[in-house]
């Protein structure tokens, strides 16, 4: 009797494992080639690869993990850019540039808020809205950059920071779209 019960339990467990492995898509770490392919869909592929590879979590991350990492890196870069802009405001004597920097503060406060919101949506598995927030954060960074299209020009590293945040926003968008699309 005990052996029959044991065999019944084993059969049930094997059946459950088989069912679960067919229902749940296995998540495997993204390869270096896949990482390059993913980043080729962003605004700055080399910065994208460099940013992801600089995070130790990337080595074992699947697409979902990369999306989380990209959210973290994007927010960190957006916060760093906001700090740079505030430093520029404090040092700038030209009122035209000061006004543009002040407008960029609005852009970056919005971008940071969007990325914080995206993290909450990520935790709720709402990847459609994560994609939207990533895309809009990208637009905010590019809006700041466009403010300096006409003279006087900004001579700081702000342009590169804007491009980096825009690249990371495009990465969040791409990964969230990929995750949310049907298998």
Automatic annotation (TrEMBL):
UniProt KW keywords: Disulfide bond, Signal
Record SMART domains: PMEI
GO molecular function terms listed in the Swiss-Prot or TrEMBL record: pectinesterase inhibitor activity
Stretches assigned to the Pectinesterase inhibitor domain: 30-175
Pfam families with a match to the protein in the record: PMEI (PF04043)
Gene3D superfamilies in the record: Invertase/pectin methylesterase inhibitor family protein (1.20.140.40)
First and last residue of the signal peptide: 1-29
UniProt cross-references to InterPro entries, sorted A to Z: Invertase/methylesterase_inhib, PCW_Enzyme_Inhibitor, Pectinesterase_inhib_dom, PMEI_plant
Transmembrane segments: none
Source superkingdom: Eukaryota
PANTHER family: PECTINESTERASE INHIBITOR-LIKE (PTHR36710), PLANT INVERTASE_PECTIN METHYLESTERASE INHIBITOR SUPERFAMILY PROTEIN (PTHR36710:SF4)
NCBIfam families: PME_inhib
Family assignment from sequence similarity: Belongs to the PMEI family.
Name of this protein: PMEI domain-containing protein
Organism of origin: Cephalotus follicularis (Albany pitcher plant)
